[in-house]
Amino acid sequence: MTTSKLAGLARPAKKARLFGERVSDGRTMARLVMKFGGTSVADVDCIRNVARHVKREVDAGNQVAVVVSAMAGTTNQLVAWTREASPLHDAREYDTVVSAGEQVTSGLLAIALQDMGVNARSWLGWQVPIRADAAHGAARIDHIDGSVLIERMDDHGQVAVVAGFQGVGPDNRVATFGRGGSDTTAVALAAAIGADRCDIYTDVDGVYTTDPRIVPKAGRMPRISFEEMLEMASLGAKVLQVRSVQTAMVHGVRVFVRSSFADPQSLETPGTDSPVGTLICDEEEIVEQKVVTGIAYSKDEAEISLRRVADKPGVAAAVFMPLAAANINVDMIVQNISEDGSLTDMTFTVPIVDFERAQEVLAGARETVGYQAINGSTDVAKVSIIGVGMRSHAGVAAEAFEALAGRGINIRAITTSEIKISMLIDASYTELAVRTLHSLYGLDEN
Amino acid sequence: MTTSKLAGLARPAKKARLFGERVSDGRTMARLVMKFGGTSVADVDCIRNVARHVKREVDAGNQVAVVVSAMAGTTNQLVAWTREASPLHDAREYDTVVSAGEQVTSGLLAIALQDMGVNARSWLGWQVPIRADAAHGAARIDHIDGSVLIERMDDHGQVAVVAGFQGVGPDNRVATFGRGGSDTTAVALAAAIGADRCDIYTDVDGVYTTDPRIVPKAGRMPRISFEEMLEMASLGAKVLQVRSVQTAMVHGVRVFVRSSFADPQSLETPGTDSPVGTLICDEEEIVEQKVVTGIAYSKDEAEISLRRVADKPGVAAAVFMPLAAANINVDMIVQNISEDGSLTDMTFTVPIVDFERAQEVLAGARETVGYQAINGSTDVAKVSIIGVGMRSHAGVAAEAFEALAGRGINIRAITTSEIKISMLIDASYTELAVRTLHSLYGLDEN
User: Fold this and answer.
1) How large is the ipTM?
2) pLDDT band at A2 (very low <50, low <70, confident <90, very high)
3) Over the range A121-144, which residues count as b (16 or more CB within 10 Å of their CB) and which as e?
4) Residues of A in contact with B85 (CB under 8 A)
5) Which of A126, A341, A379, B71 has the fewest CB atoms below 10 angstroms from its CB?
6) What pLDDT shows up at residue B313?
7) Edge-to-edge, what's the strand order for the sheet holding B130-132?
8) What is the pLDDT of residues B241-273, one digit of tens each?
9) Which residue in A has a C-alpha nearest to residue B123's C-alpha?
């Protein structure tokens, strides 16, 4: 998603609001996007609970747009039907079928809101409109025209209930955004209508310092920066899809992750005191920044080693070009210096789903590369340390290597970025490594 | 539905086709609309069967547009959800929810057709567009723009798979056409694209001379005129909705009712020889016209009698104006001459669902009407004889009265039109009356 393509998402009227336009009855109004996932709208009772969450914000004087997913299970059923009709289905027809799920939820939520006396109406992707590109099945948002929604909010206090996951393509047909696309709809919509915050209601109450199933002492982070959240999401934290975090970061949309299963009436609007959830925001908004914010892990990668490759210019290209041509992403790369200085071992990781295919591609490229053998393993895990504080703190990596070595954990490969260190280890040590690092950087709660 | 509002449905290029433009490979091509109801698309296997029907017509060199209903049961589920969300739901939101059913089927059928090598794409109401009026939940079609569909047929032989039951209202929101609305979509679409025929595939193989559950010797009519079919549909033959027959009559769309459950490969395209189904067409197309075409019956009416009403000008208005104001349709009306010539009994029928309400309205109007008592009964049936041949044959009614009298059946009220005689009788005699009339007019098959 490039900035130029997203010109239409630029936050409107930002300046005006700083001068306090949105004050009503002495209270400061906020403009909010609230997004509810499939388990939050699983049946009509759940939808009514969602309506109570929305009503709470409306009663507090806020302007609200809601984005909804399909009822849990619906999308799977619709996808299964398209596959049953043909394993090689037309993505445009897939989109027509699958987008029906969010359509149903948006109408039902509008009805439930009206039933509670809240002025509301549903909006399908083509009605807003949410303009998408032509990549049916995994389309990207080009432009959202938020003007009519804003007008309805300003003039009638009307709540917009927007069907997530769908837009309209340049061919005037429904285009869906791929799994997790409703999050992206919510964040992009928040940018388009200049919302103060995008609240993602989900089945967890925030983003944790690591997976609480592995580290019971993992704590909910009150705040996390866009950059850190992007790394967390890329590395397997399932709370938000990567694309929605990217969109939030590009447009500076503050995203608040919170639970939809708490009692709507007892929930406070998050402030500085005790917000229940995690705010994803600019680094500047985070006062007490720790060096390390979280520990992530992923078992979605596989390791491939090419033994005794010629150590000469052009050999890396000979290895990685055919993989790129086959659309296989290579992540971590390690090249060992061989004993005699002329031959080397080359180790790298690929997504585990591409493991077999990657080996086939490399077998086909054996002549040009000239390696002696291929070894591979899916029995590896990538453990990562994330924190924007690492930018200004040296020695974080060294501490991590030392701590893992102290536990007898061998590091097979390393990649680093400004705010992340990832280490490839044997999968069986995953939990031990995560716990060790979580303690090391002071993330354990008492 | 007025003719002026439907200007957009006028059949295009009719003249051109008479000069043989649509001839390909030496065969005469036809342009067809094929409509499949909910039981015909109940699951993906059924949808694949529908695709085979469509492919048969495409392979025969025809241009095809298909109209589909929602999968059987889907619409009921969606309607139930809207009611669960609120008993008093917004009709616009109802339409958003309920139209999702046809959307799913249209996409799935397009996929199934493509899987068989047929060029096909789905069209939602707003994409065609099918423009509807603002009466959400029971909207009427204002205009269908068939130009793009025709272009795709002419240029690419593409099959249009159109979601039935839905259009787009003047408010740019989805509008549905009420139950049976997919039939109307099909007929109106046939008019808009100048189709040679609209094939309605259903779970019966045609229109019968009467209900075969009552008269096992009832026969399938090979042809029936628009006017007769309109009477049959109005009187309870459930094969087609009244509105779709009206639309067909106004625009001269030939409608062929046939079964979707026969083997698609063994079905012949209907010709003059042995078409399996019933063709609804202009009277002129029916060569051997019988005097009576069919016998219909309905138990959906109730009888109300006002005893000892003043026999003076204005009293009928005093009775029927308040009923009309309450939106209650009065059908059969009988006024008896009373003994002393100044007071009369007035008997009429109303829809059985309005029976209680009609009595309340009349009780409220008692002062202005000045009747002595109200009597009512729901235990009545209306039996009707239908046939355009009655226009030129006197004595049909007399024969019917005589035959029923011969069976001891009392006729409580009578209404006639040019092509129909309806008689109100005690409900317990319904089957006997239908059988008697079916035999009387020579409709029993050997």
Assistant:
1) 0.82
2) very low
3) bbbbbbbbbbbbbeebbebbbbbb
4) 44, 47-48, 108-109, 111-112, 115
5) A341
6) 76
7) B141-144, B130-132, B166-168, B174-176
8) 889 999 999 999 999 999 888 777 665 554 434
9) A173
Q: Name every chain A residue with its beta carbon within 8 A of the beta carbon of B108.
A: 81-82, 85, 93, 97
Kindly state the DSSP code that residue B177 receives in the 8-state scheme. Answer: -
Domain ranges in chain B are 7-287, 289-446
| Cα–chain center distance at B166 | 17
Q: Give me the amino acid identity at A237.
A: A
Runs of H (alpha helix) within B60-90: 74-85
CB contact under 8 A, B100 and A100: yes
Q: Which element (helix H / strand E) includes B162?
A: strand B159-163
Is the pLDDT assigned to residue B330 strictly greater than 60?
A: yes
- Greatest mean pLDDT among A178-192, A236-250, A414-428, B184-198: B184-198
The yes-or-no verdict on residue B33 having pLDDT over 70 is yes
CATH classification of A7-287 is 3.30.70.100, yes or no?
Answer: no
Q: pTM, whole model, 2 decimals? A: 0.84
Task: Check CB contact under 8 Å for B93 and A111.
Answer: yes
**Which DSSP category does A315 fall into?**
H
In the block, tokens 């008993």 appear at B87
Q: Say how many CA atoms lie within 13 Å of B65 toward its Cβ.
A: 32
Q: Do B366 and B357 form a contact (C-beta atoms < 8 A)?
A: no
Q: pLDDT (tens digit, 9 = 90+) per residue, A328-342?
A: 999 898 877 666 667
Our CA angle for A383, A387, A390, nearest 5°, is 105
Question: B408's torsion region: left (phi>0), alpha (psi -120 to 50) or beta?
Answer: left
Q: Tokens representing B438?
A: 């079916």
**Which of A20-24, A174-178, A259-263, A416-420 comes out lowest in average pLDDT?**
A20-24
CB-CB under 8 Å, A121 with B126: no
The number of residues in chain B equals 446
* B172/A108 Cβ within 8 A: no
Which site among A66, A74, A90 would you substitute to test the B interface, given the most B Cβ atoms closer than 10 Å to its Cβ? A90
